[in-house]
Please model this.
Amino acid sequence: MTTLSYLKELINGKGTVRLLEIIKSWFNPPPMHRVPLYGRGIHALPNAHEKELFDLSSAAFIEGNIMSGYEYFLSSLIHHENPFPTPHLNIERGEEFLNFSLIQGSALIKGSLTKTSFEAYADIALSSKLHVAIKRHFLERDFQLTYCRFSDENGIIKLSIRLDNATITPQKIFYPLREIALNADFEKEFIAGEFEESSLLETSHLISLPREKIEQNYDFMQQWIKETAQSLIGLLSNDNTGMTSFSYLALLLQIDYLLLPHKKMAKNISEKINGYFMDDEKLTEDKNADLEQYLSELIDMKIESFETQFYDSAYTFSPYEQAMHDEIASFIDESLSKVRWYKNNRSNYVITVIYRYISLYVLYNYGLHPSLRALLHLHVEVYASDFFKAAGETPLYDPNTKIFNVTLIAQRIRESIEPYKSRYKGLSDFSEHLNYADLDHFSQSFYLQIKTLDYTEA
Amino acid sequence: MNTTTQKMVEQTIESIVQITNPYGSGSGFLIDGLIITNSHVVSGLKEVLISTKTLPKTLGTVIYDDPAFDLAFIRSPIPIQHKNPLQLCETPVSDGDSVIAIGHPYGLNYSTTEGIVSKASRLQGEVEYIQFDAAINPGNSGGPLLNDAAEVIGVNTFIIQNSNNLGFALPAYTLKEALDQFRTLNAEDVIRCISCKNLIAESSIQNDYCPKCGTKLDVAKRRREGYKPSGVVALIEKILETLKINVTLSRRSQRSWRFEIETTRIDINYYDNGIVIADSALCRIPQENIEALYDYLLSENSVLERLQFSINENTIYLSYVIVDSSLSETHGTWALRKLFDHAPRYQKHLIEHFKAPEPKFDEFE
Model:
């Protein structure tokens, strides 16, 4: 979609004044925080004109201009500062047609539009090479999905949707498109995690990581596992089950967030973390033993196997629903009360682990507002400064001298808050309220500030 | 339960009625050709669905609605066959008497529980009730409480929620009094005023006020207004009527419909999250040739427009799924017609070609 075509549409329409405002805002974009590059979800900034484009889409549909309605809607999904070499969403518009393709992790969704209907599909896998369990799984998913369905078209398993345009609105496109994108990605990852992945289709958009990066990630994973094992030596398992759990969980969350594995490794990490929280019958000691066993599998993993678990790809839709801030604040509260308990019981070792765990847990489990995601990432960055230094970033903390880069931390907090201050009047830069005495004091003061952030719209 | 009790249950079961309306369901029983139930079971409606062991779902007319004693009488358009008519007990009930409750708790048809009279008389407001400990639950309302001679000693009316077996039944003598008064009036469409307790012919009511004491009669208002679906529910019912489905007989609740098309059962549910699902459980998974069956279903999904095959637990479904805001009369009618047409055909094919067993329908709904 070009600026010219927007102009053309708008000039033909009614919103001349709003058009000028939009053009003005394009030349003076609001200051934005850094592009998120870690964790699961979108590694780009949201479209700054998402709302305007969404509104233009609604208006076009009301006027019966179906093609433009879709074009505006799809344009609203295009992220800013997409770090990948190719766009994550392509739109091709002709007089009587509109085609598009979008990338969602391992999946490529292709769509086409006529005036009466909209169809989109993702090629998933070759039917002939699939295990019977996967076919059963697809048919069971068909019972659960709302908009899309799995089918076998000439030997190719597809996930597809079809929408009628008679009463179409942007909302009625968003949810089906999101469902097909998230599920196509999820199911391809599921196949790769459970069975031989050779049957998967449409994988050419996946970007291999450079060998150097793979080696660096592998070394860090090995180093973190060894450091964790070392830190737990001397702790009696029956007296320190909670401490051990925090250490193992924080480690797995860190591996997932910073290294971002896919396929079987992602599936196993997810199963281990979720299994820990969901199995109420197992003793904590046994859960810790499971985690320890998995970590020993990871440390024994050869780099050749490790390498197969990684690729880079864009995500058009976030897999998370945005959580209420109250929910996150209450998790922080609960975690800080655990910190107090361990402090009172003189278990100082685990306190730093819990502080590290809080941000990683929230980043792993909740859909976050972009500013909160950036702030919690900052906390991760402080704790994993070696990793970020190796990635070419200026470290926010020096673990040898125990000195914080106060100026850079303050700048990063400002960058996370400023773009949203006009929208959320209660948001304010809190860098001056942080305590830089040491890591524990920093974290305590940081989480207390995070807890009180106010995302109530003005 | 001993053999005598079992025989008694067997004899009385034909007199037990299931009552359904868009707002809920309950129980009832036959006395002298009239169906007795609670007022709260008929929800202020003039017509409700009735069914018995010998009577398929039929529209019954609520001819007497008595919120004061929580009673209602329903007339069936067709005489209901029952060999052993129930009788009202005319002797006093005592603490410790054995009792049996029969009804349809949570839709679990013809459930029987036994217990004893915990207290023969408990006053709640102005009305006396029999307290008993036979387990009753929502759906038992309106059903009979029987003594060991299979006589009706009360109408199961309410429980104390979250208690252990604290059930209450309106005594047979109150029911008998209401029946006598009703018959004396020799009229149908009668309401009892909740305040002055007079029986009022509905035709004499103006603006929903009791002509005797002037109290506003909520039941009169509800009966006058009837059940009027709106929005998506109305649209679904309009589509069903276009497709010649008897909407009244197929309603299971305000948002749920069930009916048969040839040998298949069709369920339509409109969920709180805005999703409308019309589906038909066609068959169960066979024990052989299962992968070929999966291949067939997935392959059919690529050509089936608007419909889809899926599996839940061990059952194969053919479904039409749509979000309420996208449901239109034209497309909805087209898709449901297709479902009604395809479901019996696919069921036959799956059973014959893949040796798939017929579906089993869960009673726990």
